Amino acid sequence: xxxxxxxxxxxxxxxxxTPAQPDRVPAQAGRLPxxxxxxxxxxxxxxxxxxxxxxxxxxRELVHRAAVAEVLLTDWQRHSETHYTITAxxxxxxxxxxxxxxxxxxxxxxxxxxxxxxxxxxxxEFDVPLGHHFLLEELTLTTNPGQMHVGHAPADLTLHITCTxxxxxxxxxxxxxxxxxxxxxxxxxxxxxxxxxxxxxxVYHRIRPAHVFTPTHQPPPLTTPLTPQTVGRHxxxxxxxxxxxxxxxxxxxxxxxxxxxxxxxxxxxPGMLLLEAARQAATATxxxxxxxxxxxxxxxxxxxxxxxxxxxxHPTHIHTHPTTNPHxxxxxxxxxxxxxxxxxxxxxxxTQ
Length: 352
What we know:
Elements: E1 4-6, E2 73-78, E3 83-90, H1 108-124, E4 133-143, E5 155-169, E6 172-184, E7 187-199, H2 201-207, E8 241-243, E9 249-252, H3 271-286, E10 295-306, E11 317-322, E12 328-335, E13 338-351
Antiparallel strand pairs: 1-4, 2-3, 3-5, 4-7, 4-10, 5-6, 6-7, 8-9, 9-11, 10-13, 11-12, 12-13
């Protein structure tokens, strides 16, 4: 089973819309934006006035984000049904994926970039209608710390994507697995793999409990967060874990008002929130007994699987487990004594 849905809510400027009810676009509504195949612009020098090409983001609806500021992809090009090139840009200072130690891009922004790439291709190249639901199954990522440094300008990335498993029912895409190699100015920056399934709105409503679509469907009340510095954060608002009496065991804080983790309404816990919880749990475990750490932990590799739906209204418990490598932890998430998520995460210590 899968555990996290890439929601395809498409917020629109409707003053009478209630926040508790996601605004979904029916499969037959509208057409997808025209495909763009303009070449990427690598020159940071402001161009002279003229016809372009100009750099902009892809439509936010195609990457399942409500805020334009959260869109990381700038263009894409099809080479064949299985090979694509996508360009992306990382800001020097993201509002959530803040630089680690002030010197390195947060590697989880690479995971979000690869996630957005899959949604873009599914809609723009495989003709998945807006309104369908994406169920995340696997997400792996390895990054090259030498290419994660924050420079004097935003980081321009190229994603080289190969679709290895394309599953259809008739002409409709039902599942996709793809491998991504990231390069930064031609140099390898990382590689990753994602797999997900796609279901129609009718199927999704049939397999989900009816109460998750009601306005009263809410997470448990927020509990006291861990100290931000112990989990590599600067502000309590970005801390997604609370302490428990047991070492290396934490409770998930599901804050549906967080502008990045809940960019739009969800009926479940997003997969990227669980990945952030794993990273914070690993950092807290490495910083155990050190309330004022001076060493930062740069994630370099993770292999993640989502095994069940992560229900919004159930308590979620995060556990870290040691391995033979002191820099690698196995991290699990549990609801009602069932494992809903597990990842093996390796970090590299770094100082300011």
